[in-house]
Amino acid sequence: MLFPSISSATDTFNGSHSLPDGTTLVSKDGTFEMGFFSPSNNNPTTNRYLGIWYKSIPVRTVVWVANRQNPVKDNSSKLSISTQGKLVILSKNNTLVWSANTTEETKAQSLIVQLLDSGNLVVRDEKDSNPLNFLWESFDYPCDTFLPGMKIGWNLKKGLSWRLTAWKNWDDPSPGNFSWGMALGNTHELVMWKGSDEYYRSGPWNGVRFSGKNTPRYNLDFNSTLDEVYYTYRFVSNSFITRVVLNQSLYSRRRYNWIKENQTWSLYSKVPRDKCDNYNACGPYGNCNGDEPLQCECLMGFKPKSVQNYEALDSSQACVISEPWSCGAKDKDP
User: Where is the Bulb-type lectin domain (predicted)?
Assistant: First the structure.
């Protein structure tokens, strides 16, 4: 499979071209750039990944990685469209490194790969009059970063789970065990997990926001249909750069805003905000007061199952009923 490479800055390439290591796509408004990179500056030819980052921000901030579990060990790789119409990364001797998940086959010559101003990488049919008919898009396969316009939740029709997963560490974009998504149920809460264990819950959607304070800087949106259940957000001003990222080492979901005057990312908010924010911090029938140090108390009518364990902040046994319930008795209602 031989493809000529693109020769100048552009936001697209088609099936007769490829994007080799050393060349990039740039979104029309210049916000995002896509190409091959190495997380380690000490050895830039070790573990090469195809990623998307902010073009105008001097410190490379990667928001999406394609081959996060299959790095290339040199700079021989290229992004191409296969003859079956799939987006692929090929290395030496055209060895397949990564392939986009899609079941639709279209002639490669009629396909266009485009990096949008939103940071979404899409594949679409050039002959389709509707430019929003995507055959594949990177927003369907988020990594550790949540951008305006992305969705957290489920595409029930396609069987997709829009869930973020943290990088394993700062120079390894492979998935860690810290993730954030939506738990399907009566409330459709947003949940963070450590592995399979619930770590944080947002609370139910009340029609305006999940439990917590709404922020006028951006608009929240929750949608539930037969095909999709998702949460998204968008900023009132497109000139404002913000991102939400999962931090594996801190087990924290953090929102950063770009401060142009200082040329730095500023931490705007984080969850959990303190130890009491953690899911089930004090166990069943326990009440959390304070975060440093964590203080747990049993609710009225309950007592620690193990006083020694509870004082040691082991909430696994938590609280049990201290006396029989006395419905209607003064000062004894549980």
Answer: 10-136
